Amino acid sequence: MSAPDVIVNPLEIEARSFAIIDGEVGEHAFDFRQWPVVRRIIHTTADFDFVANTVFSPQVIDKALGALRRGEPVYCDTAMVGAGINKVRLAALGCALRCHVADPDVAAAARAAGVTRSIMAMRKGIDGGCGIFLVGNAPTALYELLHQARAGAIKPSLVVGVPVGFVGAAESKEALLESRLPSIVCRGRKGGSAIAATILNALMILAEEA
Amino acid sequence: MSAPDVIVNPLEIEARSFAIIDGEVGEHAFDFRQWPVVRRIIHTTADFDFVANTVFSPQVIDKALGALRRGEPVYCDTAMVGAGINKVRLAALGCALRCHVADPDVAAAARAAGVTRSIMAMRKGIDGGCGIFLVGNAPTALYELLHQARAGAIKPSLVVGVPVGFVGAAESKEALLESRLPSIVCRGRKGGSAIAATILNALMILAEEA
């Protein structure tokens, strides 16, 4: 094919996509820093349900940008989330990426305990400090995070809570909202690794711009 | 939280999820090997639109399983697709994973030409043979693949065509369907890296079972 009318410039593709999304969504209640995040979720999924599903806790954008600029570590529950994060931007901010779900000791411990690797990876990743936590896949990882935060073992500067699925995903996200931790959440069943990554990418762009 | 009623066993989570999906979808027109693929897409996205959107070309499951059992290489357009593929299953089948989008020479060539890295990565990956091609992100990569196939430079055993977005994604997938290449396609704007990976993962399970 390579038809001559196919747009091949990535910046032009993105700009046109954003214009289409702006036009189709029309009016909304997000502020000028929330909307670039939601728009990028729609850009990643082509799913306008996220306009209604996406919730920001009070002042969470300020807290997230502060954490990024302080170079806090970024934890993620799956390798796919890590793969989707813009590494150039992350390095420029000085943030380390931590993902333990594929570590052999995590897999062995999860098998032995009969629980998800995500739970064990979350336990391994915790070192008592602050950080940005991205949960794109596993409700079990989000529940474990809430448990650790309640116990004072972690002090999240931001929790991106967007696990996907039919067993526990929606409930885990409501539990996150009730926890009053700084969070960006896509309520309901929908979510996923690509959404977790795209939210962080959108925040990193905001951190560079502001 | 770690509430006692939270299901933490991954196999139990998957089984319950599949039962919920089966129940909510009810009757459908997919055969006994297509449905596990579609069901896994829904499991990955929590989006029932994929029941209507997902299209299989004639005999594509046979062709895909044949390619997997012959150990043909698997090409993917983004690192996220690669990250989502089950490496244990891929290694058991003897298939190599090829993804060039993050190669420095690909990025430099794309910048110089003003085109997407996906196009350059697709060009670099092509070595004239057969293979399984997963396009989860970039319509430009899919158009380039169709161009190369038409020119006889590649002979795809399977094209998973699920790019996502607002500029060219839907059109590129219609072009794939018109090409009559063996394909699994999610028509319209929706798609994504997680879907491309999950389709291959579902096919690898079928390849083991049959």
TrEMBL record, chains A, B:
Domain annotation Cobalamin biosynthesis precorrin-8X methylmutase CobH/CbiC: ranges: 12-205
Q: In which pathway does it act?
A: Cofactor biosynthesis; adenosylcobalamin biosynthesis
Give the UniProt record's GO annotations in the biological process aspect.
Answer: cobalamin biosynthetic process
Note the Gene3D superfamilies from the entry. Cobalamin biosynthesis CobH/CbiC, precorrin-8X methylmutase
Q: Which Pfam families match?
A: CbiC
- Name the domain of life this protein comes from: Bacteria
Q: Which GO terms describe its molecular function?
A: precorrin-8X methylmutase activity
Q: Which InterPro entries match?
A: Cbl_synth_CobH/CbiC, CobH/CbiC_sf
The alphabetical list of record keywords is:
Cobalamin biosynthesis, Isomerase
Sequence similarity? Belongs to the CobH/CbiC family.
Under which name does UniProt file this protein?
A: Precorrin-8X methylmutase
Q: Which organism is it from?
A: Desulfuromonas soudanensis
